Amino acid sequence: DAKTTQPPSMDCAEGRAANLPCNHSTISGNEYVYWYRQIHSQGPQYIIHGLKNNETNEMASLIITEDRKSSTLILPHATLRDTAVYYCIAQGAQKLVFGQGTRLTINP
Amino acid sequence: DAGVIQSPRHEVTEMGQEVTLRCKPISGHDYLFWYRQTMMRGLELLIYFNNNVPIDDSGMPEDRFSAKMPNASFSTLKIQPSEPRDSAVYFCASSFTGSNEKLFFGSGTQLSVL
Question: What's the rounded Cα separation, in Å, for the pair B92 and B103?
Fold first, then answer.
């Protein structure tokens, strides 16, 4: 399982795009990049995942660099409800191992 | 679907007592996971099952912890005897084969061992 590095905390203004970086320089060819978030006192929630192509869904966009050593999760129009801890995971096995994540605070 | 259902939501017990946490996965899901979350250690995977069979229990802290999945719709995590350091939020999650590790988490059980 590839080690991921995320900034411990970030701030973003409401209505702006939130860009959360993740470094996974040791990722191997069959490992996916997953993003989850955890809103205070709730269980983690799946956001998006990708292998090498950029992905978009109703929640967010995932941009993976061509060398796959890093990725960025983009919340296009952040709201106060997006305040949460965001986890980036890079691995291929069935079980997911969560790191410390980035605590994102959306400010009014 | 009601999602992953865990019970109880909160449990307060005294050191030495037996604690049983319960989980009902989403119908049709064939993977079930137990996680524990503390401020110090974050989210830790304890054990996971596939088709009711334990696949990896390497995260189970010690023999005081045990988990069972008697059928596809029910799992338990038991701590006997409980200790104050077991205080944490315990999450259950489920997924299905081919879902690319899209886990669905329950609301968790907040366990306090006094």
Answer: 10
For B47, which residue in chain A has the nearest alpha carbon? A95
Q: Which residues in chain B land under pLDDT 50?
A: none
Whether A34 sits inside 8 A of B31 (CB atoms) is no
Task: State the nearest Cα–Cα gap between A19 and chain B, in angstroms.
Answer: 22
Sign of torsion over alpha carbons B20, B85, B57, B106: positive
**Whether B55 contacts B66, CB under 8 Å:** no
Beta-carbon contacts of residue B27 (< 8 Å; ≥ 6 apart): B1, B73
Cβ distance A49 to B101 less than 8 Å, yes or no, reads: yes
Q: Do A95 and B48 touch (CB under 8 A)?
A: yes
- Which residue among A32, A43, A100 places its CB closest to the CB of B107? A43
Q: Which residues contact B62 (CB under 8 A, 6 or more apart)?
A: none
The verdict on A45 touching B (C-beta cutoff 8 Å) is yes
What's the confidence (pLDDT) of residue A6? Answer: 96
Which among B102, B75, B105, B73 is positioned nearest to B89, based on CA atoms?
Answer: B105
pLDDT in tens, A30-79: 889 999 999 988 999 999 999 998 999 999 999 999 999 999 999 999 99
